[in-house]
Amino acid sequence: MKRLLGLSYLWTGSLNGVRLQIWGTWLFYGVLVDLGDAVADELSLPIDSISLEMIYRGLYHFSVAHQKGLASDPVQYFAAPENKDLGIVKQKRKSQVRLIVSPFPARQRSPEEFFFQPDSQTPLTTDLQP
């Protein structure tokens, strides 16, 4: 959020200017969280499934729609099905699939025994036995 809201760069070096920038950023962040919560309530979703970054980026699109007279309520605008492409609702992550890169998958060892418990059938030396 620090990078997103522009707090990673300070506009001034004076103490009062830094305080104003920090307080302004925190106030805007509070409004952004409140807007995200209202959108989550409108969509009947938990708040953590709403992307605050995409709401922040979508405010530009809302302002353009508002100037054209197409939207008046930001909550209704972000919750509308035709604005799904704004990415307000986070996509569900794909399940983690473990990739086996062993050349012999049948002999794949578990992580616990990979380094510390050698297989008793595998010789520990590379010498050829006569």
Average pLDDT value? 81
Helix content: 40-55%
Low-confidence stretches: none
Q: List how many beta strands DSSP finds.
A: 0
How much of the sequence lies in strands comes to: under 5%
Helix-strand topology string: HHHH
Describe this structure in words.
This protein is mostly helical and 130 residues long. The protein has one domain (1-93). 42% of the residues lie in helices and 0% in strands. The radius of gyration is 27 Å and the shape is flat. The protein starts with 14 loop residues before the first helix and ends in a 16-residue tail after the last helix.
Labels describing this entry:
mainly alpha; 130 residues; single chain; flat
Write the layout of secondary structure elements.
Blueprint: H1 15-43, H2 52-67, H3 74-79, H4 111-114
Give a brief rundown of this model.
This protein has 130 residues and is mainly α. It contains 4 helices and no strands.
